[in-house]
Structure formats: structure tokens, C-alpha cells
Amino acid sequence: MNSFGRIFRVGIFGESHGCCTGVCVDGCPPGIALSESDFEDDLRRRRSGEKGTTPRREADLPRIVSGVFNGFTTGSPIVVEIANNDTAAKDYALFRDIPRPGHADFTAEKKYGGYADFRGSGHFSGRLTAGLVAAGVIAKKIIAPAAVESRILEIGGSADWKEIIERCLTERDSAGGIVECTISGAPAGWGEPFFDSVESVIAHIVYAVPAVKGIEFGAGFAAARMYGSEHNDAFEGQEGATVTNHAGGVNGGITNGNPIVFRVAVKPTSSIARPQTTANIRTGATVTLEIPGRHDACIALRIPPVLEAAAAIAIADLKMIYRAEPQKKI
Amino acid sequence: MNSFGRIFRVGIFGESHGCCTGVCVDGCPPGIALSESDFEDDLRRRRSGEKGTTPRREADLPRIVSGVFNGFTTGSPIVVEIANNDTAAKDYALFRDIPRPGHADFTAEKKYGGYADFRGSGHFSGRLTAGLVAAGVIAKKIIAPAAVESRILEIGGSADWKEIIERCLTERDSAGGIVECTISGAPAGWGEPFFDSVESVIAHIVYAVPAVKGIEFGAGFAAARMYGSEHNDAFEGQEGATVTNHAGGVNGGITNGNPIVFRVAVKPTSSIARPQTTANIRTGATVTLEIPGRHDACIALRIPPVLEAAAAIAIADLKMIYRAEPQKKI
Amino acid sequence: MNSFGRIFRVGIFGESHGCCTGVCVDGCPPGIALSESDFEDDLRRRRSGEKGTTPRREADLPRIVSGVFNGFTTGSPIVVEIANNDTAAKDYALFRDIPRPGHADFTAEKKYGGYADFRGSGHFSGRLTAGLVAAGVIAKKIIAPAAVESRILEIGGSADWKEIIERCLTERDSAGGIVECTISGAPAGWGEPFFDSVESVIAHIVYAVPAVKGIEFGAGFAAARMYGSEHNDAFEGQEGATVTNHAGGVNGGITNGNPIVFRVAVKPTSSIARPQTTANIRTGATVTLEIPGRHDACIALRIPPVLEAAAAIAIADLKMIYRAEPQKKI
Amino acid sequence: MNSFGRIFRVGIFGESHGCCTGVCVDGCPPGIALSESDFEDDLRRRRSGEKGTTPRREADLPRIVSGVFNGFTTGSPIVVEIANNDTAAKDYALFRDIPRPGHADFTAEKKYGGYADFRGSGHFSGRLTAGLVAAGVIAKKIIAPAAVESRILEIGGSADWKEIIERCLTERDSAGGIVECTISGAPAGWGEPFFDSVESVIAHIVYAVPAVKGIEFGAGFAAARMYGSEHNDAFEGQEGATVTNHAGGVNGGITNGNPIVFRVAVKPTSSIARPQTTANIRTGATVTLEIPGRHDACIALRIPPVLEAAAAIAIADLKMIYRAEPQKKI
């Protein structure tokens, strides 16, 4: 399904080369100031334009279709659409016989039996994350004063990635990267033990972001190599602050009041112009595939605002659910 | 919430020192052979008893309360309960003032305002995974002929972990580990783009397993350090088989017919007998805490069947959802 | 599925002649005083024993399996089981060839392909409402100070139904009835426009109660014969009180602060001892069926506490959802 | 929330005087022929224009925003928008002090704290049912060869309602009515016992239709006045056909293969031009309210295609869920 959340519910729609992509946000509280200009910053950050990102140029002007009146959210579903203008004609039908390695061409065919809109990867396009970013702008307002921030830790294994990108452009190749996201200011008590743990809910939506192949909280995979005596976060004082934050702000699935920290592994863009040896799945023949078109040499460069949006959406839902279950003191 | 799944829905209940833990499985198809003895193998594997696991000894005899008749599932909710017998009396109330580092004592207090059953970690106990394992036994039957298998890759950073465990027992410390899970035999086409991607759904339920702090699919975090030309999985033949499986069997959120492979980081058990410096959160004073009781020196040793159960539950749901959405050919 | 609710979620399980029926309540706030004796009154009202109700005699002693500690709800799932003791052996297999008219024998066969537990109607038995009543006891505590009350308006078309019941017992027949339910003390603002309107949510769960075939709010079907000038409820004063309550306390799907009033049509019990002409669906032959066993001559007599439970569960969920969506004033 | 369904999921959005209303349909199978002209018939039937319906004239030209490619559904979310063109400027702010009797003005204020778009009733407008009708067009294709049909049984208590409408227009009043809906061709086995009974699911969505205040299946409220011997539907033959259909095609919450029949009570339109005595809720003063503008004298006249849409959406979801749970024969 294309929706996420129990109380603050987000659904995305659209195709890369259709008229637009968009998002429907249901369950947003009324009375939040919201205008089309509020989306600009994060949509611009997602658009990037930095060296290594796609030459496709979209204005990304959001249009609020419903749910906002006199400058405030009304409590009714908010639909935001972002038009597709710079859609280049290209013969994507080729990829039905020779599916692009690492791409969703093959799986889309298997799932949708040949009916998927394959132009520019259709509904599977990273372009759909524009709607996610738009929903994130609203979610960020809901979780305030808690705030979310992402940053790239490394690209292609390097914290100084300029050279990696250059190499990708020269070699018509692509690179992956690691992005870290921190949510600060969330109080203790959000989330649930087991199935709706903070980690479960964040990981669920983060894995909806194309190209994500790993997520770890706090010490993450490094924790697997630590002793308990190193890993345990000692408390100090009366507020639950911990000396270290190996838990990434979550114990037993519930926020502990320390920053929620997670890192995400982003695979290298699968669409590369460099020739690839693969198969024609109609004939079984080995072929060499060269993918024309405009691609991101490194999609990780554009992930930070998308990750922030995903995290904010998850946290907004948990915050609203927390409100529903009042805590009673003996 | 304590439930998971859209069609095949699993809910767990119970407390470590209550009468039992259990699981309710809703949406299970009728006509699946099922008896109490079917649960034995996986419950025994979870129980372990291996060096480094808890001295708590539970028979783990499952009792089918509903949903099975004449040896077959009926289509009605299946409730399975597993009694708690070996519950040692201990003063857990101490941990309300001095919450155990790395544990859910503090967050449970914040969320439930002092009403949580804190005996043996109550509803937060790893003991709840017995119910998950029971549901997994049913899920494994649904996903057949697809099959799921887990194995420990390393404990404390070592593929040969005997020494690590010895050190933990001697030092009254604990160790983490990495466990890999493989689902083979799943056809292409299961899962959804975006919010219900295979990775999203598996990660969601896997993060419900206590002590999991990271999950990666296929090449995972290593993918972030690869070039696209290395990472892309070339196709060979007509069936969608790929030469490599860096994608871990999932493209665009949908199974591609190759094995689904993921790895999980398990943190070291947070309950350690070794003295820890931490705080009394009522007074703010720095204190030394020694945790008595029976603990796993390495919970990762017991994770494999739990991980298999989680994966099988997720995949069973995706398989059933796939059936609901028939594919039509032009 | 056998669950209901978004935040306060209720799932029932069990079979008429299995070991027990029960309920799992997830999402219940912590800190609510709860003990097994709290269930007694409503379970006794449901059991009835009045003339015209089944001679099956169950003690209906509830057992709290989880989610309660030291006399209070913990916030974890609450499982309550009610044992089946008075299960008479009888040959229900007959009904697979000659399904009882008005009963679920035929549809259960079609849905579950012969695997359903058919003893005493299995999972379709009215006995499952014991779990619903148990959940209602908890829900009533959540919605307080709002309160819910049901009463029988008529049985067999008569407000004085003693004679009707006598006739049913003599003629080995059964009668239906109309039951009214009133929720008072709910403030304005609960519920949602459209899909989760108060009427939608209440009707959803009320139609889960076996034998219900109609539900109307406020003036209900009579409203279809009124003019707008008669039907509209004029306001008086500043608090939203209305002179009449033809709307049954709900406008635009949202509570208006006046009592929520609905009426339910309960069909006559389908199991009657009187001979019935019907078909053997294996052979197609016309046959005369006499149903032995213990039945309610009028199930409507036992519906009031079940209806209260259903209403309280629905309202508890809406109350908790309302809390999640804070109202902001300009 | 503004969404409905588990597999076939429908969400509506928009406001009466915003740019458009619309619908998002998620979970639709791929490969269904669909074009904008497919929506015309049902949107025209809903628009009506018959004597007694609103003078507001909308072209109701649907625009498919996503999810359709080369004339077929793709399996991705389908968004359909219907523009609002004929929006008359009017001072709706008045109704914040003097809420219209029978309308959602008061409850919207209570729920949304003054932020709701009150122009033309905003999100509460019957205009939102245009999106529901659009989704119904898609659902009807999914449930084929089963088919759904609605007809007006009576208006203002009369099967010949011409005079009633004339009186309403002369007296500036409004009338209610009763509409019947029949789903034929659905096989036995759809739906679930208890919480997702066919009646539960249909009643849930039907009560989302503004002005509906009652729903009954089969004999409905009349069943409450029948004896079991009259009400029980005898089987004939081997296919499960019944001599009568008092059950309205549903036993134990599951379709029995006979036509599913339900009737709905539609209240008279609450917006009437005739003066009404009511209160100013800011001051508490008794006032006389005259509501200007364009209204339906009888909204029931426009309900049939909306009811068909609601029923088709519910049944489409149940059909898809049924497919997910394969029946196994011993």
C-alpha cells in the first residue's frame, strides 16, 4: 500500500512522467500555519542540483489542493501536488526485455504484469520522494519543538567525497553513501514495545525511500562487537540523560529523551550510463546494456531532506498516538 | 500496538512473570495441519540452554486455546499460550529508582507512569518472543515451499565465539552478535513499492525483537562503499536469476525471486551482573548498580529462531496480500 | 478479521465448545483499576437465565491472563478468558449436509472449506460475545464520565413481551426484538466526517453482534418520512444543547454533545426446535429438519449488555483518537 | 480518518468551494481498462438536476491524475479530481455564531476549533461524494460479474413522491427518503464473522454518506417482529439458494450467494430556506435563521449512485481479501 501511519497518515501518488507527483496527508491537526512557500526549502534541498545529481530540472512548485484555509490547516486531508514539467521522451519499453540491473524494471513487470507506467521508472521513481518531503514539512511542524536534522557522513566510503563524484562522472558510474539523521528534543515515552517500537516505525518508512539498504540505531552494527559493559548507557542526574548514547535514544522500543540517532546505507544509483553485461529476459541471451538519460551519479547526495521527512512523519505519528494514551500516576 | 500484519495478523501478550505469554494469530487460512507438537522444535531452539544463555528453565509447553479443530486450522483466530513456571522472586522495585542502563526500566516508567509490571521486565521481556516463535511456526507453513533459515555470523566480532562467551561469563559481562537470515523460494512480485516494501515490512517486525539495533539487506552498509557498476546485480537467463545478490532479493521494494537475505545487529544483553556506575533518578546521585538474577550472557545466541519467525510472519502477510491483487496480462 | 479499533483495539477468539472464549484488548491506557470481579455484573446480565434464554449454564468466571498488575491495567495487552464448561455433546456434523436455515452453517462451509469448528456453531456462536462484554467493561471505564445504557424496546413487536416468549416456548419458535442504546455525557467533537463517522464506527461494531440486522440513529428510518423543518434539531443556549434529538447526538459524523441514541433490530434466533422444511445441499433433496439442543427463544433478551459493550468500545476508541488530535484556537 | 478499506483502499479529499474534490484509490489491481469517460454516467446520475435537486451546476469533469497508463490501471494509486467551478460567494461566517440546525456547523467548530473551511460546508459537503462515486466506478469493475443497483423506494413516506417535492419547493422545506441497494452475483464466502462482517463493512462506509441515519439488511427492522419460523430462509437445491431472502444475502457476517439487499434511511436536507427558530451560541439568544443559497430539497434523490459506489467499494475490498485467504478442502 502507498500509505503510512495510524493517526498522522501519509499517502503518496503519481508517476515520474505523469502530470504530477503528490501526497495526501490525513489526520493532520487543525490550526497549523501552512502555505505553499513553506515547502520551498526542503523541496529545493531535495532537488539539489549539486554536482553528481541529475540534470533533470524541475521547478517543484507545490500546489495545495485541499485541507488548508486562510493560511491554516483545517483538520481535513491535505493534498499537495508537484507538477512534472521536465519529462524527456525516451524509449523505456526497451527495459521490459532487458531490465536494468539493480532497478525495479523486472519486479514491476512481475508484480503488475506489464501494466506499470514504465516511463522514467513511473511510480518507482525517486521523484515520488517529492511528495514525501512535502509531508515531512507538515510533520516537522507537528513534532516541534522536537527537530530533525540529517547529514551525509560519507560517499563511496570517503568523508571527503568530491573525488568520488568526479570519478563517477568520468567513468559514467555511481556511488553510494551513508547518511545520519538525528531527532532532538523528543521527550521520553514515545513509541511502543514490540511491533510499534520507535525503531520499527522509523525503519518501516525509511525503507520506503528508494536506494536505502541498511538502517542502524545508535551504535548499530558496532554494538554487535561491544561488551555490555561498554554498550550500556549510564544515567546521570534525574532527567534520564545518559553519558553515552549507544542506544540511539531508544530503549525497549520507547524514546528515552536522549537524541534519536540513526544511520542509513544508500546504495549507488542503479541507472548508470556505463555499459553493463546482463540478460535479455525474453530470449535469455547475454547482452550489453547502455542506459541513456539523465541520472544522479549519487542519490545519497539528495537523501538528507528525504530522510528528515521520513523521520518527522514517523515521529509525528508516534507523538499523536502518545497523546491518545494518557499516562496516569499512582 | 502489539499487533502486526494486514491479512496475516499477529498479536503478542503476556509478561515475564505472569501466568503465561502468548500470541493471537488472526487471518490464518483454514486447513493447515497444526498441533502442539509442531511448536516444539522452534521453541526448543529459542530456549537454547547453550553455554551463555539464561539459567531460567522453562518447559515451554504450548497450549492451543482456539482456532484449531481436528488437527487443522479453522480460519478463526489461533491463540497459543506458553506458561511461565520458573519465575524467581526478586526485588525489581529497586529498578524504578535506579533504572538498569540499556534496559527499558526508565522508558517503561515514563510511558506507563509506574503501572507497568516490572517483574522480570514484564511485557518488555525477551520471554515474549516465545509467542512470536509460535506464530512463526504457523507462518512457515503458509509460506511453504518458500523457507527461512537463520544463522549466527559472529559474536563479539568473532566468527569463533567460544572464547568471547567464556570471557563474558568470567567477567559477568555480555556480548552482542550478528545474525543472518535467508528466505529462499519466494517468487518475484511480493511486496509493494514505497511504504510496504519488503524491506519496510521485514525491518518493522525485526525491530520488534528486543536487542536488535541494525538491519541491512543484501550488501547493506557495504553497498554504500561500492560503485554502481560493482553493486548492480546482472541478470542471467530468462527467470530473473542474478549473478550476484547485492540487492538481497529485493528491487524497488518487491521480491525479485532471488533469496531474500538480511543481517541483523544484536546488542549485548543489557542486564549484566558486573557493577555499573549509573544514577538514582529520584535523587540524581551517582550509584553503583549490581544486577542480580539469571541472564543471557549473549542474547544473540537465541535470536536465530526468533528472526526466522519474524521473517516468516512478514513474508506470510506479503504472500497473502499478493494473492489478493491478481496480476493481469495484456 | 477479528479485531476492531485504531487505538483501543479489541480482538475476540475462541469457540463455543473449545476450552474457552476470550478477548485481547490492546491500547488500553495504564492505571485503570481492574479485577476479575469487575466483569461479573455485565457477564451475568449477558448470561441472563431469564425465561426465554438458553438453558446452557456457564459460570462465566473471567480469568485475566495478562495486562493487569497490582490491581491496575499496565498499558500492555489485556487478555481475558472465559472458560466453557457446560458443553453438551451433539452431532453437529449433520448440519454440514443440511445447513440450518438462518444460520452460518452454510457460509462457514463456503468460507472455511469444511475446517470450521462446527460444534455449537464454533467461532460463530453468540458465546463469543462474552469476550466482547469483557472488553466493554474496560471500555466503560475509559469513557467515564460518559456512560452507556441499553434497554429492550420491544420483543416480537410488543412492548409487553411475556406472552410472545410463552408462545415461542410452546411453539418451539423464536422471536426478535428492538433494543435501544444511549450514550450520555460524551462531549461534542468526537468522531470524523465521512469514513470514521460516529455512526460508521458504532454500526461497524454493532453489526459484529450476531443477529443484528438493522441500526438507526436518532429518528432513524422515521427521519425518512419527516420534513426538514420537523427533523432539524433547534439549538438552545450556548452549549449546543438541542430542543429535540432527532440526530441522535451526531451531526456530520461528529458528536454534538447531546445523547448518542441508536436502536438495533435483532432477528429471531435461527436455531428453533420446530420442524423446518429445507434442503440437503449434498443431494438437493427437500427435507424436514428438527434442531435439537439448547437455544435462546429470544436472543434479543440477552443483547443489552452486548450492545453497551459494543458502543463503549467504539466510543473509547473515538475518545482516544480525539485526544490525539488537539484542537487549536485561533 | 478519510480512508476506508484494507486492500482496496479509498480516501477522499477536497472542499465544496476549494479548487476540487477528489479521491485516491490505493490497492487497485493492474490491468483494468479505465478512462475519464468511464466516470461520466455515475457522476451525471449523482449530479441529477431533477426537480428537487440543487441548482448548483457543476460539469463534474473528472481528471485522472495518476495510476492509469495507456488506458489501463497500473496497480499504483489512482487519484481522480473533479473541479469545483460553480462556487457562489456567500457569507458562511454567520453560521459560526448561529450554527444551522441539523448541520455540521456546530460539530465542525467543536472538532476543528474554528479552522474548518466553512464555505459551502467545506469538507462536510455532499459534494465530497463525487469522489466516492468515482471510486465506485473503479470498484464496480473489480466486483464484476457481481453488480450493484440502487433505487428509491419512497420520498417523504410516499412511493409517488412528485407531490412531496412540490410541497418542499413551495414551502422552502425538504424531505427524506428510503433507498434500497442490491448487490447480485456475489458468491458465498465473502466477509468475516464478527468485526468485518459484510454488514459491518457496508454499514461503515454507508454511514460515511452524509444524511444517512439508518441501514437495515434483508428483513431488517421488520425481522424484529417476525418469528424464527417465518424469518428463517429455507434452502432449496444444492447451490445454497434460499426460498426467501430475509437475511439479505448474509449469514454469520458472510455472503451466502443470494442477493445482498440493504435499505438506507436518508434524512431530509438540513439546509432549508424556511425560517427556523434556533440559538446564537455566542450569546445564547433565541434567533430566527433563514438560510439563503442553493440546496437540494431532497438529497435522497441523488443518493442511489452514491450508495452503489459505497457498496461496490466495500464489496471490492471483501472480494480481494477473500482471494488472499484460499479455501482448502479436506
Model description:
The structure is a homotetramer of 330-residue chains. In chain A, 24% of the residues lie in helices and 22% in strands. Chain A has eight helices and 15 strands. The first copy, chain A, has helices at 40-47, 94-97, 105-112, 129-143, 162-171, 198-206, 228-231, 303-324, and strands at 3-4, 9-14, 20-26, 62-66, 68-69, 72-73, 78-83, 147-155, 177-184, 212-217, 250-251, 254-255, 260-266, 276-279, 286-289. A five-stranded antiparallel sheet of chain A has the order 1-2-3-7-4, with helices on one face. In chain A, a hairpin with a 2-residue loop joins strand 11 and strand 12 (254-255). In chain A, helix 1 (40-47) crosses helix 8 and helix 6 packs antiparallel against helix 8. The longest helix of chain A is centred in the last third of the chain and has 22 residues, at 303-324. Chain A is globular. Chain A starts with a strand and ends in a 6-residue tail after the last helix. Chains in contact: A-B, A-C, A-D, B-C, B-D, C-D. Strand 10 (212-217) of chain A pairs antiparallel with strand 10 (212-217) of chain B.
In the CATH hierarchy, the third-tier topology of chain A is known as: Chorismate synthase, AroC fold
Q: In percent, how helical is the residue content of chain A?
A: 10-25%
Strand order of the largest sheet of chain A: 1-2-3-7-4
- Unreliable residue stretches of chain A: none
Largest interface, counted by CB within 8 Å of the partner chain's CB? C-D, 117 and 118 residues
| CATH secondary-structure class of chain A | Alpha Beta
